[in-house]
Amino acid sequence: MKQIHKRSLQLLGGAMLSALALSVSAAVSPEEAAKLQTTLTPMGAERAGNASGTIPAWTGGMATDAASVDADGFFGDPFAGEQPLYTVTAANMDQYADMLTDGQKAMLKRYPDTYRMRVFQTNRSATVPQEVFDAVARNAVNTKLAEGGNGLENFDTAYPFPIPQSGVEVIWNHITRYRGGSFTRVMAQATPQANGSNTMVILQDAFTFATALTDYGPKISDNLMFYFTQRILSPSRLAGDVLLVHENINQFKEPRAAWMYNAGQRRVRRAPQVAYDGPAFSADGTRVSDNYDLYNGSPDRYDWKLVGKRELLIPYNNFAIASRDVKYDQIIQPGHINQDLVRYEVHRVWEVEATLKEGQRHVYAKRHFFIDEDNWQAGAIDHYDGRGGLWRVAEAIALQRFDRQVPGYALETLYDLQNGRYVALGMTNEERKNYDFSFQASSADYTPNALRASGIR
Fold first, then answer.
1. Alpha helices, DSSP H, located in 16-149
2. pTM of the predicted model, to two decimals?
3. Cα–Cα dist 448/295, whole Å
C-alpha cells in the first residue's frame, strides 16, 4: 500500500463560533487521548461490548485474509453460513422501535409486504492500516476546528476527532474518513420509477486524497482534501459526460471547485451548482449533490447538535449483495432494493442532528445522522423538508474491504417517501472489476485540461 504522508492544514474560516462551540473546539488532553490505547479503539469507539451481549468487544477488526478475493476484486463472503437471528417487519417493528431510525420505521410502514430487515450476529469488522491509527492518535491531541467549524487545523491523514466533543466533529470524521488513499471503480447507479422501471447508468470514478498523490508537496494547496472525477460510460445518450471536483477542507474560505465536460458540446464549464442542494450528476432528480457518499461537502449551512450514542440496526458486512453472482435486476425492485439481500447488525452509533441555520437555504431543513462508532461512516441519515416532514431516507449498505483494510460501502441508497422513487449507487456486481486501489495519481490528472482530454470521444 502506498505510504501515507503527513500534512498540516492551517485554515481560517469567515464565521464566528458561538461561545459553546469555542469551548469544545480544542484537541483533547494527552491523558484523554491515552484512552485510544485502553478503553477505546484506536479510532475512538468503545472497545467493550454492550451489557446485553448483542455487541461484542472490538478485537482488532477483520483479518486481511478473512475470505477469498478473485482476480477482479470480488470478495468471498466470510459470513456465508450465518442465518438471521430475527427479522424486523411492519408487524413486529414496535418490539424493536428503540433500535430503528424514524426513516426505517417509515419504510417499514410504507412497504409492509416487501421491506424487512434481516438481523444477524454483530461482527465488529472495521479496521484500517496501522499508519492511519498512528495518525489518529496524533490528531486526537493536535487537531482543532478552524473558526466557524468549517475547517481543520493540524490535521493528519484521516479521522481528526476520535474523541468528539461536538456534532460537527463527528461529521468531520465521516467527511475525512480513510478510503484507501487513491482508488478507481466502475459502478452502476439505478434511479427506478415507483413501478421499478429503470435505465441503469454505468459510471467510472477516480478518487485520490491530496496526500496520496505521486507529486504531493508544497505546491499542493494545504486547503485541498481530495480530487474526484466521475465519467458516464452508458447509456449512450449520456456517455462521455465527465464531472471533476477539487474538494477543499474549508469551503467557507475557499468553495469547492467543480467542472463538467459535456461530450455533446465538447466543452468544459465551471459547475458551481455541484454543491449543497444543487442537482446531482446523472441522478435524474433523485438526490442532490451533498447526498453523494450519504453526505459530503461543507458543513457551514447547518448547526450541528451532538445528541449522543445509541444502539441501532444498520446495514453491515454486506458481502452477499456485492457478489458477482448477484445481478442488478435481483437488487433493484419497486420502492426499494431487495431487502432479502441486505444484512443488518446491532452497532453503536453517534447521533447528530443538523438544523439549517437562519438565513441559509437548503432543500433539507433538518437531518438526523447516525454515524457508526467503529468506522465513522454514516450508516443512515433521515432528511426532513421545510415543513418538518420526513422526506428522504438514506442507508449505507456497508462492508469492510478487508484485503486493503478499508471500510466502505457495497452501495448506498436514498429513498423518497413522497414519490416512491429511490437511487441505488455504487453497485459493481456486473462490471469488469470492483475496486482498484493500486493506481498512482498525479495532480496533473485532475486539471480542467485533463478533464477535456479524457472526455473527448
1. 19-23, 30-33, 102-110, 130-142
2. 0.93
3. 25
